[in-house]
Amino acid sequence: MKKSLPFLAILLVLAVGALFATLPPDAEMAVKAAAALLGIIITIGLFMSSGSELDTNVSKPKEEPSKPAPASSAKGSADAEVITFLARMQEKGRLIDFLMDDISAHDDAAVGAAARVVHQGCRSVLDEHLTVTPVDSSTEGSKVSIPEGYNAGLYRLTGNLSGSAPFNGTLVHKGWKVTSAKLPKVITSGSDDLPALAPAQVEV
After folding, report:
1. Is the pTM of this model over 0.90?
2. How many angstroms separate the CA atoms of 168 and 188, rounded?
3. DSSP of 8-75, one letter per residue?
4. How far apart are CA 204 and CA 202, in angstroms?
5. Residue 87 backbone class (left: φ over 0; alpha: ψ -120 to 50; beta: rest)
6. In 10 A of CB 118, how many CB atoms?
7. In this structure, what are the phi and psi dihedrals at residue 193, rounded to the nearest 5 degrees?
8. Residues 63, 69, 70, 73: is their CA dihedral positive or negative?
9. Which of 78, 80, 74, 73 is nearest to 195 (CA)?
């Protein structure tokens, strides 16, 4: 339809010219007005047609190929393994119960009795999953020498610290380090929810 508009305009001009040659003078003005109106309508149609063609011919920017969405951070990997490890501490030693409880409401004897249960259960879980050894095997309270190039992550020096290594001092705490770890493996269900430290228990 858009391509035929120029031909229709030419035919209209020819038809108007033929009419002008045969019309009486009193009808000539009305025909001119009608021809002018049709000419305006066709001109608008031609303008809209050319505009739409220009729009379709304008080169559109190339769309980037769709990229796969980045994999969501798996809360079930390291986070879930740590929480599952703490859940084992809760299961065997009631650690979370002990830490979340307000022990100020209990006397020392009750706290001591609870601490014994926590110690025994949590120690068994610790030995099962982690190998923990002292950073410094010297006896606490003895004199030690910290050599040059020491690992600052393994030693925390306090007191009047000046100069450069080696440093001589007293071993206040031998420290602890993990030489091997075997955290419990967790098979996630695809949900973003982290595992529970301890499920709520309901007796029915």
Report:
1. no
2. 50
3. HHHHHHHHHHHHHHHS-HHHHHHHHHHHHHHHHHHHHHHHHHHHHHHHHHSPPPPPPPPPPPPPPP-T
4. 6
5. alpha
6. 19
7. -70, 140
8. positive
9. 80
Q: Please name the residue that has the structure tokens 């858009």.
A: 2
Which structure tokens are listed for 149? 């190039």
Amino acid at 154: L
Tell me whether residue 105 is exposed, middle or buried, using C-beta atoms within 10 angstroms of its C-beta: 0 to 12, 13 to 18, 19 or more: exposed
* The residue to which tokens 């003895």 are assigned: 142
Our measurement of the distance from residue 40's CA atom to the centroid of its chain's CA atoms, rounded to an integer in Å, reads: 59
Q: Is the dihedral of CA 19, 22, 23, 28 positive or negative?
A: positive
Q: Which two tokens stand for residue 128?
A: 């099962």
* Residue 157 tokens, joined: 């020096």
Q: In whole angstroms, give the CA distance from residue 163 to residue 161.
A: 7
Q: Which of 190, 196, 152, 185 is nearest to 74 (CA)?
A: 190
**pLDDT for 12-58, tens place per residue?**
555 555 444 555 555 555 555 555 555 566 556 555 555 544 444 44
Residues in the chain: 204
Sequence letter at residue 180: S
